[in-house]
Design goal:
The complex is a heterodimer of chains A (about 325) and B (about 300). Chain A is built from 16 helices and two strands. By secondary structure, chain A is mainly alpha-helical. Helices cover about 75% and strands about 0% of the residues of chain A. Chain A has one domain. The longest helix of chain A has 27 residues. Chain A is globular. A two-stranded antiparallel sheet of chain A has the order 1-2. Chain B has about 300 residues and is mostly helical. Chain B has one domain. Chain B contains twelve helices and two strands, in the order H-H-H-H-E-E-H-H-H-H-H-H-H-H. A two-stranded antiparallel ribbon of chain B has the order 1-2. In chain B, strand 1 and strand 2 form a beta hairpin. In chain B, helix 1 runs antiparallel to helix 10. The longest helix of chain B has about 35 residues. The radius of gyration of chain B is 19 Å and the shape is globular. The C terminus of chain B is likely disordered. The chains are: A mainly alpha (about 325), B mainly alpha (about 300). Chains A and B meet through helix 6, helix 12 and helix 15 of A and helix 4, helix 9 and helix 11 of B.
Protein backbone atom coordinates (compact mmCIF):
# COMPACT_ATOMS: atom_id res chain seq x y z
CA UNK A 1 0.00 0.00 0.00
CA UNK A 2 2.82 2.32 0.93
CA UNK A 3 4.57 1.49 -2.31
CA UNK A 4 1.47 2.26 -4.33
CA UNK A 5 1.27 5.65 -2.66
CA UNK A 6 4.86 6.45 -3.47
CA UNK A 7 4.36 5.33 -7.03
CA UNK A 8 1.82 8.09 -7.55
CA UNK A 9 4.23 10.64 -6.18
CA UNK A 10 6.68 10.35 -9.07
CA UNK A 11 6.45 12.95 -11.78
CA UNK A 12 6.27 10.18 -14.39
CA UNK A 13 3.11 8.70 -12.92
CA UNK A 14 1.54 12.13 -12.35
CA UNK A 15 2.08 13.05 -15.98
CA UNK A 16 0.98 9.59 -17.15
CA UNK A 17 -2.15 9.82 -15.05
CA UNK A 18 -2.93 13.23 -16.52
CA UNK A 19 -2.76 11.70 -19.99
CA UNK A 20 -4.94 8.73 -19.06
CA UNK A 21 -7.53 10.98 -17.41
CA UNK A 22 -7.61 13.23 -20.47
CA UNK A 23 -8.16 10.27 -22.80
CA UNK A 24 -10.94 8.88 -20.57
CA UNK A 25 -12.51 12.34 -20.52
CA UNK A 26 -12.56 12.37 -24.31
CA UNK A 27 -14.10 8.90 -24.41
CA UNK A 28 -16.84 10.06 -22.04
CA UNK A 29 -17.55 13.36 -23.79
CA UNK A 30 -17.60 12.08 -27.40
CA UNK A 31 -18.73 15.50 -28.56
CA UNK A 32 -16.62 17.44 -31.05
CA UNK A 33 -17.59 20.77 -29.49
CA UNK A 34 -16.34 19.85 -26.02
CA UNK A 35 -13.31 18.11 -27.44
CA UNK A 36 -12.48 21.32 -29.29
CA UNK A 37 -12.67 23.30 -26.05
CA UNK A 38 -10.40 20.79 -24.33
CA UNK A 39 -7.86 21.10 -27.16
CA UNK A 40 -7.71 24.84 -26.44
CA UNK A 41 -7.47 24.03 -22.76
CA UNK A 42 -4.42 21.83 -23.45
CA UNK A 43 -2.79 24.57 -25.52
CA UNK A 44 -3.44 27.17 -22.79
CA UNK A 45 -2.12 24.84 -20.10
CA UNK A 46 1.18 24.41 -21.93
CA UNK A 47 1.67 28.20 -21.80
CA UNK A 48 0.51 28.65 -18.21
CA UNK A 49 2.72 25.83 -16.89
CA UNK A 50 5.67 27.82 -18.24
CA UNK A 51 4.29 31.04 -16.81
CA UNK A 52 3.77 29.35 -13.45
CA UNK A 53 7.42 28.25 -13.39
CA UNK A 54 8.38 31.85 -14.10
CA UNK A 55 5.94 33.55 -11.71
CA UNK A 56 5.55 31.07 -8.90
CA UNK A 57 8.95 29.46 -8.79
CA UNK A 58 11.26 32.17 -10.08
CA UNK A 59 9.09 35.06 -8.81
CA UNK A 60 9.33 36.97 -12.10
CA UNK A 61 6.37 38.26 -14.05
CA UNK A 62 5.88 38.27 -17.80
CA UNK A 63 3.04 40.29 -19.29
CA UNK A 64 4.17 39.48 -22.82
CA UNK A 65 3.74 35.73 -22.99
CA UNK A 66 1.26 35.99 -25.89
CA UNK A 67 4.15 37.32 -27.99
CA UNK A 68 6.12 34.07 -27.68
CA UNK A 69 2.94 32.13 -28.37
CA UNK A 70 2.53 34.28 -31.47
CA UNK A 71 6.13 33.96 -32.64
CA UNK A 72 5.86 30.17 -32.41
CA UNK A 73 2.57 30.15 -34.30
CA UNK A 74 3.56 32.63 -37.00
CA UNK A 75 6.99 31.04 -37.56
CA UNK A 76 5.60 27.58 -38.24
CA UNK A 77 2.69 29.07 -40.20
CA UNK A 78 4.90 31.15 -42.48
CA UNK A 79 7.49 28.37 -42.94
CA UNK A 80 4.90 25.76 -43.94
CA UNK A 81 2.63 27.90 -46.12
CA UNK A 82 4.97 30.43 -47.74
CA UNK A 83 8.11 28.28 -47.95
CA UNK A 84 6.32 24.91 -48.13
CA UNK A 85 8.60 23.48 -45.52
CA UNK A 86 7.64 20.12 -43.99
CA UNK A 87 6.32 20.38 -40.43
CA UNK A 88 9.11 18.17 -39.14
CA UNK A 89 11.51 21.05 -39.89
CA UNK A 90 9.19 23.96 -39.18
CA UNK A 91 8.60 22.79 -35.61
CA UNK A 92 12.24 22.85 -34.44
CA UNK A 93 12.90 26.04 -36.40
CA UNK A 94 9.94 27.89 -34.87
CA UNK A 95 10.99 26.72 -31.41
CA UNK A 96 14.58 27.77 -32.05
CA UNK A 97 13.49 31.20 -33.28
CA UNK A 98 11.28 31.85 -30.22
CA UNK A 99 13.92 30.65 -27.79
CA UNK A 100 16.58 32.79 -29.46
CA UNK A 101 14.36 35.88 -29.35
CA UNK A 102 13.54 35.18 -25.69
CA UNK A 103 17.23 34.73 -24.88
CA UNK A 104 18.30 37.94 -26.59
CA UNK A 105 15.58 40.13 -25.10
CA UNK A 106 15.80 38.28 -21.80
CA UNK A 107 19.38 39.41 -21.18
CA UNK A 108 18.57 43.09 -20.65
CA UNK A 109 14.95 42.53 -19.54
CA UNK A 110 15.55 40.14 -16.65
CA UNK A 111 18.01 42.53 -15.07
CA UNK A 112 14.91 44.59 -14.27
CA UNK A 113 12.80 43.85 -11.24
CA UNK A 114 9.20 44.10 -10.10
CA UNK A 115 7.16 46.79 -11.82
CA UNK A 116 9.90 47.59 -14.31
CA UNK A 117 10.04 43.97 -15.45
CA UNK A 118 6.24 43.86 -15.77
CA UNK A 119 6.17 47.01 -17.88
CA UNK A 120 9.13 45.95 -20.05
CA UNK A 121 7.50 42.61 -20.89
CA UNK A 122 4.21 44.40 -21.57
CA UNK A 123 6.03 46.74 -23.96
CA UNK A 124 7.83 43.87 -25.69
CA UNK A 125 4.56 42.01 -26.18
CA UNK A 126 2.96 45.09 -27.70
CA UNK A 127 5.93 45.64 -30.05
CA UNK A 128 5.68 42.04 -31.33
CA UNK A 129 1.93 42.57 -31.80
CA UNK A 130 2.59 45.69 -33.88
CA UNK A 131 5.15 43.78 -35.98
CA UNK A 132 2.57 41.02 -36.69
CA UNK A 133 0.22 43.74 -37.92
CA UNK A 134 2.77 45.57 -40.04
CA UNK A 135 4.84 42.81 -41.71
CA UNK A 136 2.22 42.53 -44.42
CA UNK A 137 4.17 40.35 -46.85
CA UNK A 138 4.83 37.65 -44.26
CA UNK A 139 1.89 37.80 -41.90
CA UNK A 140 -0.89 39.21 -44.08
CA UNK A 141 -1.27 42.11 -41.63
CA UNK A 142 -4.44 42.55 -39.57
CA UNK A 143 -6.47 40.18 -41.76
CA UNK A 144 -4.01 37.33 -41.27
CA UNK A 145 -3.44 34.28 -43.46
CA UNK A 146 -4.74 30.72 -43.69
CA UNK A 147 -4.24 27.33 -45.32
CA UNK A 148 -1.70 26.19 -42.76
CA UNK A 149 -1.25 22.43 -43.32
CA UNK A 150 -2.35 19.77 -40.82
CA UNK A 151 0.16 17.70 -38.88
CA UNK A 152 1.02 14.23 -40.12
CA UNK A 153 2.72 11.75 -37.78
CA UNK A 154 3.94 8.38 -39.04
CA UNK A 155 1.66 8.70 -42.05
CA UNK A 156 -1.44 9.52 -39.97
CA UNK A 157 -2.88 12.93 -40.71
CA UNK A 158 -4.36 14.59 -37.62
CA UNK A 159 -7.51 15.59 -39.47
CA UNK A 160 -10.11 15.06 -36.75
CA UNK A 161 -10.50 16.79 -33.40
CA UNK A 162 -10.21 13.45 -31.61
CA UNK A 163 -6.80 12.66 -33.12
CA UNK A 164 -5.58 16.18 -32.47
CA UNK A 165 -6.88 16.02 -28.92
CA UNK A 166 -4.75 12.96 -28.16
CA UNK A 167 -1.70 14.59 -29.76
CA UNK A 168 -2.14 17.84 -27.77
CA UNK A 169 -2.69 16.09 -24.45
CA UNK A 170 0.26 13.78 -25.01
CA UNK A 171 2.39 16.91 -25.34
CA UNK A 172 0.74 18.49 -22.28
CA UNK A 173 1.68 15.38 -20.30
CA UNK A 174 5.25 15.49 -21.60
CA UNK A 175 5.58 19.16 -20.63
CA UNK A 176 4.10 18.41 -17.22
CA UNK A 177 6.58 15.56 -16.73
CA UNK A 178 9.49 17.79 -17.72
CA UNK A 179 8.33 20.64 -15.50
CA UNK A 180 7.73 18.50 -12.42
CA UNK A 181 11.22 17.12 -12.81
CA UNK A 182 12.65 20.61 -13.13
CA UNK A 183 10.93 21.67 -9.91
CA UNK A 184 12.37 18.70 -8.03
CA UNK A 185 15.86 19.21 -9.37
CA UNK A 186 18.72 21.28 -8.02
CA UNK A 187 17.69 23.90 -10.54
CA UNK A 188 14.13 24.03 -9.19
CA UNK A 189 15.28 24.35 -5.60
CA UNK A 190 17.60 27.19 -6.61
CA UNK A 191 14.63 28.88 -8.30
CA UNK A 192 12.56 28.67 -5.13
CA UNK A 193 15.46 30.15 -3.21
CA UNK A 194 15.56 33.12 -5.61
CA UNK A 195 11.85 33.66 -5.14
CA UNK A 196 12.10 33.62 -1.34
CA UNK A 197 15.25 35.71 -0.99
CA UNK A 198 17.18 36.81 -4.03
CA UNK A 199 20.11 38.54 -2.37
CA UNK A 200 20.65 35.68 0.07
CA UNK A 201 20.63 33.09 -2.72
CA UNK A 202 23.19 35.14 -4.59
CA UNK A 203 25.46 35.16 -1.55
CA UNK A 204 25.17 31.36 -1.42
CA UNK A 205 26.67 31.20 -4.88
CA UNK A 206 23.52 30.84 -6.98
CA UNK A 207 23.82 32.72 -10.23
CA UNK A 208 20.37 34.29 -9.89
CA UNK A 209 20.42 36.14 -13.18
CA UNK A 210 21.35 33.10 -15.25
CA UNK A 211 18.65 30.98 -13.61
CA UNK A 212 16.00 33.60 -14.20
CA UNK A 213 17.08 33.85 -17.83
CA UNK A 214 16.91 30.06 -18.30
CA UNK A 215 13.43 29.85 -16.86
CA UNK A 216 12.30 32.81 -18.97
CA UNK A 217 13.62 31.09 -22.10
CA UNK A 218 12.00 27.81 -21.03
CA UNK A 219 8.62 29.48 -20.54
CA UNK A 220 8.97 31.14 -23.96
CA UNK A 221 9.76 27.72 -25.43
CA UNK A 222 6.57 26.28 -23.92
CA UNK A 223 4.56 29.17 -25.35
CA UNK A 224 6.15 28.53 -28.74
CA UNK A 225 5.13 24.86 -28.65
CA UNK A 226 1.60 25.97 -27.78
CA UNK A 227 1.72 28.37 -30.72
CA UNK A 228 2.80 25.55 -33.02
CA UNK A 229 -0.14 23.41 -31.83
CA UNK A 230 -2.53 26.32 -32.25
CA UNK A 231 -1.38 27.17 -35.78
CA UNK A 232 -1.75 23.62 -37.10
CA UNK A 233 -5.11 23.14 -35.40
CA UNK A 234 -6.89 26.35 -36.43
CA UNK A 235 -4.87 26.56 -39.71
CA UNK A 236 -5.48 30.33 -39.76
CA UNK A 237 -3.57 33.10 -37.98
CA UNK A 238 -4.36 36.77 -37.35
CA UNK A 239 -2.72 39.14 -34.85
CA UNK A 240 -5.79 39.56 -32.63
CA UNK A 241 -5.13 36.20 -30.96
CA UNK A 242 -1.73 37.34 -29.74
CA UNK A 243 -2.64 40.73 -28.28
CA UNK A 244 -1.84 42.24 -24.93
CA UNK A 245 -5.26 41.10 -23.73
CA UNK A 246 -4.32 37.44 -24.11
CA UNK A 247 -1.06 37.94 -22.21
CA UNK A 248 -3.10 39.36 -19.36
CA UNK A 249 -5.62 36.51 -19.50
CA UNK A 250 -2.71 34.06 -19.16
CA UNK A 251 -1.38 35.83 -16.07
CA UNK A 252 -4.95 35.87 -14.72
CA UNK A 253 -5.21 32.10 -15.17
CA UNK A 254 -2.01 31.48 -13.23
CA UNK A 255 -2.91 33.96 -10.48
CA UNK A 256 -6.46 32.65 -10.06
CA UNK A 257 -5.32 29.05 -9.79
CA UNK A 258 -2.41 29.80 -7.53
CA UNK A 259 1.07 31.03 -8.44
CA UNK A 260 2.96 28.89 -5.99
CA UNK A 261 2.16 25.61 -7.66
CA UNK A 262 2.06 24.12 -11.14
CA UNK A 263 -1.26 22.44 -10.39
CA UNK A 264 -2.63 25.84 -9.46
CA UNK A 265 -1.86 27.06 -12.97
CA UNK A 266 -3.64 24.02 -14.39
CA UNK A 267 -6.71 24.60 -12.20
CA UNK A 268 -6.85 28.30 -13.01
CA UNK A 269 -6.48 27.66 -16.73
CA UNK A 270 -9.21 25.02 -16.63
CA UNK A 271 -11.64 27.26 -14.76
CA UNK A 272 -11.08 30.28 -17.01
CA UNK A 273 -11.09 28.28 -20.26
CA UNK A 274 -14.09 26.06 -19.58
CA UNK A 275 -16.31 28.49 -17.64
CA UNK A 276 -16.86 30.97 -20.52
CA UNK A 277 -18.14 28.12 -22.67
CA UNK A 278 -20.84 27.25 -20.16
CA UNK A 279 -22.14 30.71 -19.42
CA UNK A 280 -23.60 32.40 -22.44
CA UNK A 281 -23.58 35.77 -20.69
CA UNK A 282 -19.91 35.27 -19.84
CA UNK A 283 -18.84 35.14 -23.47
CA UNK A 284 -19.87 38.69 -24.35
CA UNK A 285 -18.55 40.22 -21.19
CA UNK A 286 -15.62 37.91 -20.61
CA UNK A 287 -13.16 40.61 -19.59
CA UNK A 288 -15.55 42.01 -16.98
CA UNK A 289 -15.97 38.58 -15.38
CA UNK A 290 -12.22 37.88 -15.60
CA UNK A 291 -11.65 41.15 -13.74
CA UNK A 292 -14.21 40.30 -11.06
CA UNK A 293 -12.78 36.81 -10.55
CA UNK A 294 -9.17 38.02 -10.46
CA UNK A 295 -9.90 40.89 -8.07
CA UNK A 296 -11.96 38.65 -5.75
CA UNK A 297 -9.26 35.99 -5.64
CA UNK A 298 -6.44 38.48 -5.07
CA UNK A 299 -8.30 40.18 -2.21
CA UNK A 300 -9.79 37.15 -0.48
CA UNK A 301 -7.30 34.41 -1.27
CA UNK A 302 -4.11 35.75 -2.88
CA UNK A 303 -2.57 32.27 -2.91
CA UNK A 304 -5.20 31.18 -5.46
CA UNK A 305 -7.75 28.41 -5.77
CA UNK A 306 -5.22 25.60 -5.37
CA UNK A 307 -5.36 23.98 -1.97
CA UNK A 308 -8.84 25.16 -1.02
CA UNK A 309 -10.22 22.30 1.01
CA UNK A 310 -13.80 21.57 0.17
CA UNK A 311 -15.40 20.21 3.33
CA UNK A 312 -17.01 17.32 1.48
CA UNK A 313 -17.60 15.21 4.55
CA UNK A 314 -19.36 18.07 6.33
CA UNK A 315 -21.58 18.73 3.34
CA UNK A 316 -22.50 15.06 3.07
CA UNK A 317 -23.16 14.61 6.79
CA UNK A 318 -25.24 17.78 6.85
CA UNK A 319 -27.40 16.30 4.13
CA UNK A 320 -27.94 13.14 6.07
CA UNK B 1 2.85 72.39 -48.43
CA UNK B 2 6.60 72.76 -48.07
CA UNK B 3 8.71 70.65 -45.76
CA UNK B 4 9.12 73.40 -43.17
CA UNK B 5 5.39 73.81 -42.71
CA UNK B 6 4.98 70.06 -42.63
CA UNK B 7 7.57 69.75 -39.88
CA UNK B 8 5.84 72.49 -37.94
CA UNK B 9 2.57 70.59 -38.28
CA UNK B 10 4.17 67.40 -36.94
CA UNK B 11 5.71 69.39 -34.10
CA UNK B 12 2.34 70.78 -33.11
CA UNK B 13 0.62 67.40 -33.10
CA UNK B 14 3.59 65.92 -31.24
CA UNK B 15 3.25 68.54 -28.51
CA UNK B 16 -0.48 67.84 -28.26
CA UNK B 17 -0.16 64.09 -27.84
CA UNK B 18 2.92 64.56 -25.65
CA UNK B 19 0.89 66.69 -23.24
CA UNK B 20 -1.52 63.80 -22.77
CA UNK B 21 1.36 61.39 -22.11
CA UNK B 22 2.72 63.88 -19.59
CA UNK B 23 -0.62 63.95 -17.75
CA UNK B 24 -0.73 60.14 -17.59
CA UNK B 25 2.87 60.16 -16.36
CA UNK B 26 2.05 62.69 -13.64
CA UNK B 27 -0.73 60.34 -12.52
CA UNK B 28 1.78 57.47 -12.27
CA UNK B 29 4.19 59.68 -10.33
CA UNK B 30 1.71 60.80 -7.68
CA UNK B 31 0.76 57.23 -6.74
CA UNK B 32 4.34 56.00 -7.03
CA UNK B 33 5.60 58.74 -4.72
CA UNK B 34 3.22 57.96 -1.92
CA UNK B 35 3.06 54.15 -2.21
CA UNK B 36 5.85 52.81 -4.43
CA UNK B 37 3.12 51.21 -6.55
CA UNK B 38 2.95 51.49 -10.33
CA UNK B 39 -0.76 51.61 -11.05
CA UNK B 40 -1.34 49.64 -14.24
CA UNK B 41 -4.90 50.98 -14.35
CA UNK B 42 -3.69 54.57 -14.83
CA UNK B 43 -4.48 54.56 -18.56
CA UNK B 44 -7.96 53.29 -17.80
CA UNK B 45 -8.69 56.38 -15.67
CA UNK B 46 -8.17 58.39 -18.87
CA UNK B 47 -10.45 56.05 -20.80
CA UNK B 48 -13.14 56.28 -18.08
CA UNK B 49 -12.94 60.08 -18.05
CA UNK B 50 -13.52 60.23 -21.80
CA UNK B 51 -16.31 57.64 -21.81
CA UNK B 52 -18.15 59.22 -18.87
CA UNK B 53 -17.98 62.69 -20.44
CA UNK B 54 -19.35 61.31 -23.71
CA UNK B 55 -22.17 59.62 -21.81
CA UNK B 56 -23.18 62.79 -19.93
CA UNK B 57 -22.96 65.03 -22.97
CA UNK B 58 -24.20 62.86 -25.85
CA UNK B 59 -26.75 60.69 -24.04
CA UNK B 60 -28.01 62.88 -21.20
CA UNK B 61 -27.49 66.18 -23.13
CA UNK B 62 -25.82 67.91 -20.21
CA UNK B 63 -23.75 70.97 -21.27
CA UNK B 64 -20.18 70.12 -22.22
CA UNK B 65 -18.35 71.81 -19.34
CA UNK B 66 -20.70 70.37 -16.75
CA UNK B 67 -20.38 66.91 -18.35
CA UNK B 68 -16.62 67.15 -18.12
CA UNK B 69 -16.87 68.18 -14.48
CA UNK B 70 -19.19 65.26 -13.66
CA UNK B 71 -16.95 62.82 -15.50
CA UNK B 72 -13.86 63.99 -13.61
CA UNK B 73 -15.72 63.75 -10.29
CA UNK B 74 -16.84 60.20 -11.08
CA UNK B 75 -13.34 59.06 -12.07
CA UNK B 76 -11.96 60.59 -8.86
CA UNK B 77 -14.53 58.65 -6.83
CA UNK B 78 -13.60 55.46 -8.70
CA UNK B 79 -9.96 56.11 -7.81
CA UNK B 80 -10.85 56.49 -4.12
CA UNK B 81 -13.04 53.38 -4.19
CA UNK B 82 -10.27 51.37 -5.86
CA UNK B 83 -7.78 52.41 -3.20
CA UNK B 84 -10.16 51.73 -0.30
CA UNK B 85 -11.33 48.34 -1.54
CA UNK B 86 -8.24 46.89 -3.14
CA UNK B 87 -5.12 48.66 -1.90
CA UNK B 88 -5.66 49.74 1.72
CA UNK B 89 -7.01 46.34 2.74
CA UNK B 90 -3.80 44.52 1.78
CA UNK B 91 -1.45 43.38 4.47
CA UNK B 92 2.19 43.15 3.39
CA UNK B 93 1.49 42.33 -0.26
CA UNK B 94 4.31 41.14 -2.49
CA UNK B 95 5.14 43.24 -5.55
CA UNK B 96 3.76 40.54 -7.83
CA UNK B 97 0.43 40.66 -5.92
CA UNK B 98 0.31 44.44 -6.24
CA UNK B 99 0.99 44.25 -9.96
CA UNK B 100 -1.77 41.70 -10.41
CA UNK B 101 -4.23 43.73 -8.33
CA UNK B 102 -3.75 46.83 -10.47
CA UNK B 103 -4.09 44.60 -13.55
CA UNK B 104 -7.34 43.27 -12.10
CA UNK B 105 -8.54 46.84 -11.62
CA UNK B 106 -7.58 47.66 -15.18
CA UNK B 107 -9.55 44.68 -16.53
CA UNK B 108 -12.51 45.61 -14.32
CA UNK B 109 -12.57 49.22 -15.56
CA UNK B 110 -12.24 48.05 -19.14
CA UNK B 111 -14.90 45.36 -18.71
CA UNK B 112 -17.21 47.76 -16.89
CA UNK B 113 -16.87 50.36 -19.66
CA UNK B 114 -17.60 47.72 -22.29
CA UNK B 115 -20.58 46.47 -20.29
CA UNK B 116 -22.07 49.95 -19.96
CA UNK B 117 -21.11 51.62 -23.25
CA UNK B 118 -20.43 48.70 -25.60
CA UNK B 119 -17.57 48.27 -28.04
CA UNK B 120 -18.16 51.43 -30.12
CA UNK B 121 -15.80 54.39 -30.25
CA UNK B 122 -17.24 57.78 -29.31
CA UNK B 123 -16.28 61.38 -29.91
CA UNK B 124 -16.94 64.54 -27.93
CA UNK B 125 -17.37 67.97 -29.57
CA UNK B 126 -14.46 70.39 -29.21
CA UNK B 127 -14.67 72.87 -26.35
CA UNK B 128 -14.57 75.93 -28.61
CA UNK B 129 -15.40 74.92 -32.15
CA UNK B 130 -13.40 73.14 -34.81
CA UNK B 131 -12.25 76.17 -36.79
CA UNK B 132 -8.49 75.69 -37.20
CA UNK B 133 -6.16 78.54 -36.32
CA UNK B 134 -3.43 79.32 -38.86
CA UNK B 135 0.07 79.41 -37.42
CA UNK B 136 2.96 80.12 -39.85
CA UNK B 137 1.16 78.09 -42.52
CA UNK B 138 0.42 75.16 -40.20
CA UNK B 139 -2.95 74.68 -38.56
CA UNK B 140 -3.76 74.32 -34.89
CA UNK B 141 -7.05 72.92 -33.65
CA UNK B 142 -8.51 75.05 -30.86
CA UNK B 143 -8.65 71.89 -28.73
CA UNK B 144 -4.85 71.73 -28.81
CA UNK B 145 -4.72 75.03 -26.97
CA UNK B 146 -7.15 73.72 -24.37
CA UNK B 147 -4.95 70.66 -23.87
CA UNK B 148 -1.79 72.72 -23.43
CA UNK B 149 -3.64 75.10 -21.10
CA UNK B 150 -4.87 72.27 -18.93
CA UNK B 151 -1.42 70.71 -18.74
CA UNK B 152 0.01 74.05 -17.61
CA UNK B 153 -2.80 74.46 -15.12
CA UNK B 154 -2.35 70.97 -13.68
CA UNK B 155 1.41 71.37 -13.30
CA UNK B 156 1.05 74.80 -11.67
CA UNK B 157 -1.70 73.61 -9.33
CA UNK B 158 0.27 70.54 -8.31
CA UNK B 159 3.42 72.53 -7.68
CA UNK B 160 1.49 74.95 -5.49
CA UNK B 161 -0.26 72.06 -3.76
CA UNK B 162 2.95 70.22 -2.90
CA UNK B 163 4.80 73.37 -1.91
CA UNK B 164 2.26 75.39 0.05
CA UNK B 165 -0.62 73.24 1.29
CA UNK B 166 -0.26 71.21 4.46
CA UNK B 167 -1.73 68.08 2.83
CA UNK B 168 0.65 68.41 -0.10
CA UNK B 169 3.60 68.76 2.24
CA UNK B 170 2.44 65.72 4.21
CA UNK B 171 2.22 63.70 0.98
CA UNK B 172 5.71 64.79 0.05
CA UNK B 173 6.93 63.67 3.47
CA UNK B 174 5.38 60.24 2.86
CA UNK B 175 7.26 59.92 -0.40
CA UNK B 176 10.58 60.50 1.36
CA UNK B 177 10.01 58.19 4.28
CA UNK B 178 6.69 56.68 5.24
CA UNK B 179 7.62 55.51 8.70
CA UNK B 180 9.19 58.82 9.67
CA UNK B 181 6.10 60.60 8.32
CA UNK B 182 3.79 58.51 10.45
CA UNK B 183 5.94 59.16 13.53
CA UNK B 184 5.46 62.90 13.19
CA UNK B 185 1.72 62.38 13.08
CA UNK B 186 0.96 62.19 9.37
CA UNK B 187 -1.89 59.84 8.55
CA UNK B 188 -0.10 57.83 5.85
CA UNK B 189 -3.18 55.76 5.10
CA UNK B 190 -5.16 58.91 4.28
CA UNK B 191 -2.32 60.33 2.17
CA UNK B 192 -2.31 57.18 0.06
CA UNK B 193 -6.04 57.59 -0.50
CA UNK B 194 -5.59 61.23 -1.51
CA UNK B 195 -2.83 60.28 -3.93
CA UNK B 196 -5.15 57.81 -5.67
CA UNK B 197 -7.90 60.43 -5.79
CA UNK B 198 -5.54 63.04 -7.23
CA UNK B 199 -4.10 60.66 -9.75
CA UNK B 200 -7.53 59.46 -10.91
CA UNK B 201 -8.67 63.08 -11.14
CA UNK B 202 -5.77 64.02 -13.42
CA UNK B 203 -6.44 60.90 -15.50
CA UNK B 204 -10.08 61.93 -15.77
CA UNK B 205 -9.14 65.45 -16.89
CA UNK B 206 -6.82 64.03 -19.55
CA UNK B 207 -9.64 61.76 -20.74
CA UNK B 208 -12.16 64.60 -21.04
CA UNK B 209 -9.90 67.03 -22.88
CA UNK B 210 -8.41 64.50 -25.31
CA UNK B 211 -11.69 62.89 -26.42
CA UNK B 212 -12.57 65.71 -28.88
CA UNK B 213 -9.43 64.92 -30.91
CA UNK B 214 -8.98 61.19 -30.20
CA UNK B 215 -11.88 58.76 -29.95
CA UNK B 216 -12.96 57.27 -26.61
CA UNK B 217 -13.01 53.48 -26.64
CA UNK B 218 -13.15 50.94 -23.81
CA UNK B 219 -9.89 49.30 -24.88
CA UNK B 220 -7.80 52.45 -25.23
CA UNK B 221 -6.41 52.62 -21.71
CA UNK B 222 -3.71 49.94 -21.80
CA UNK B 223 -1.57 51.38 -24.58
CA UNK B 224 -1.99 54.89 -23.24
CA UNK B 225 -1.00 53.66 -19.79
CA UNK B 226 2.07 51.91 -21.18
CA UNK B 227 3.19 55.02 -23.05
CA UNK B 228 2.47 57.18 -20.02
CA UNK B 229 4.58 54.85 -17.92
CA UNK B 230 7.40 55.12 -20.48
CA UNK B 231 7.11 58.88 -20.13
CA UNK B 232 7.21 58.70 -16.33
CA UNK B 233 10.31 56.49 -16.38
CA UNK B 234 12.06 58.62 -18.97
CA UNK B 235 11.45 61.74 -16.89
CA UNK B 236 12.58 59.92 -13.76
CA UNK B 237 9.90 58.12 -11.77
CA UNK B 238 8.34 60.54 -9.32
CA UNK B 239 9.71 63.64 -11.05
CA UNK B 240 6.94 66.05 -12.14
CA UNK B 241 8.95 68.36 -14.40
CA UNK B 242 10.75 65.40 -15.91
CA UNK B 243 7.38 63.91 -16.84
CA UNK B 244 6.39 67.01 -18.81
CA UNK B 245 9.70 67.19 -20.64
CA UNK B 246 9.71 63.47 -21.40
CA UNK B 247 6.09 63.63 -22.55
CA UNK B 248 6.97 66.30 -25.09
CA UNK B 249 10.05 64.36 -26.29
CA UNK B 250 8.10 61.12 -26.75
CA UNK B 251 5.16 62.94 -28.37
CA UNK B 252 7.47 64.70 -30.83
CA UNK B 253 9.43 61.55 -31.72
CA UNK B 254 6.20 59.67 -32.23
CA UNK B 255 4.72 62.38 -34.41
CA UNK B 256 7.88 62.78 -36.54
CA UNK B 257 8.24 59.05 -37.09
CA UNK B 258 4.55 58.74 -38.00
CA UNK B 259 4.86 61.59 -40.50
CA UNK B 260 8.29 60.91 -41.93
CA UNK B 261 8.75 57.13 -41.62
CA UNK B 262 5.68 54.93 -41.25
CA UNK B 263 2.42 55.50 -39.43
CA UNK B 264 2.03 51.77 -38.70
CA UNK B 265 5.04 51.70 -36.44
CA UNK B 266 4.22 54.95 -34.64
CA UNK B 267 3.03 53.15 -31.48
CA UNK B 268 6.20 51.07 -31.46
CA UNK B 269 8.36 54.22 -31.21
CA UNK B 270 7.22 55.12 -27.70
CA UNK B 271 7.55 51.48 -26.63
CA UNK B 272 11.09 51.15 -27.98
CA UNK B 273 12.00 54.34 -26.14
CA UNK B 274 10.45 52.86 -22.98
CA UNK B 275 12.60 49.73 -23.31
CA UNK B 276 15.78 51.65 -24.09
CA UNK B 277 15.27 53.88 -21.04
CA UNK B 278 14.52 50.88 -18.82
CA UNK B 279 17.61 49.04 -20.08
CA UNK B 280 20.11 51.90 -20.06
CA UNK B 281 18.83 54.71 -17.86
CA UNK B 282 16.23 53.25 -15.46
CA UNK B 283 16.56 56.36 -13.29
CA UNK B 284 15.37 58.57 -16.15
CA UNK B 285 17.33 60.69 -18.59
CA UNK B 286 17.44 63.66 -16.25
CA UNK B 287 18.15 61.77 -13.06
CA UNK B 288 21.37 60.83 -11.38
CA UNK B 289 22.38 57.20 -11.14
CA UNK B 290 22.84 57.33 -7.36
CA UNK B 291 19.25 58.38 -6.76
CA UNK B 292 17.99 55.52 -8.85
CA UNK B 293 19.64 52.87 -6.70
CA UNK B 294 17.77 54.13 -3.63
CA UNK B 295 14.34 53.62 -5.10
CA UNK B 296 12.22 50.53 -4.79
CA UNK B 297 10.56 49.36 -7.94
Amino acid sequence: MLKMKNLFKTSFSKAGLTFIVSVILMAILRNPYYVGILIFLGINIIITIGLSLLMGYAGQISLGQAAFFGIGAYATGVLTTKLHMPIIFSFPLSLLLTVTVAFIIGIPTLRLKGHYLAMATLGLGEIVFIVFNELLTLTGGPSGFGNIPLIKIFGVELDSDYKYYIFVWAIVSLILFLSLNIINSRFGRALKAIHKAETESATLGINTFRLKLYIFVLSAGYASIAGFLYAHYITFLSPGTFSLGFSIVLVTMVAVGGMENIWGAIIGTTVLTVLPEYLRFFKDYDILIYGVILMTIMLLRPEGLYGIKIPLRKILSARN
Amino acid sequence: MNIGVQLLQYTLSGITIGSIYAMVAIGFNIIYNSTGIINLAQGDFVMLGGMAAVYFHNSLHIPLLLSGFFAITIVTCIGILFERVAISSLKNPSIITLIIITIAASILFKGGAMFIWGKDAYVLPSFSGDKPIMFFGATILPQTIWILGFLGLIVAALMAFFRFSIVGKAMKACSYNKRAASIVGINVNKMVMISFALSACIGGIAGVIVTPIALAHYDRGSLLGLKGFGTAVMGGLGNMGGAVAAGLIIGLLESYSAGLLSSGYKDAVALVILLMVLYFRPGGIFGKKEIESLKTY
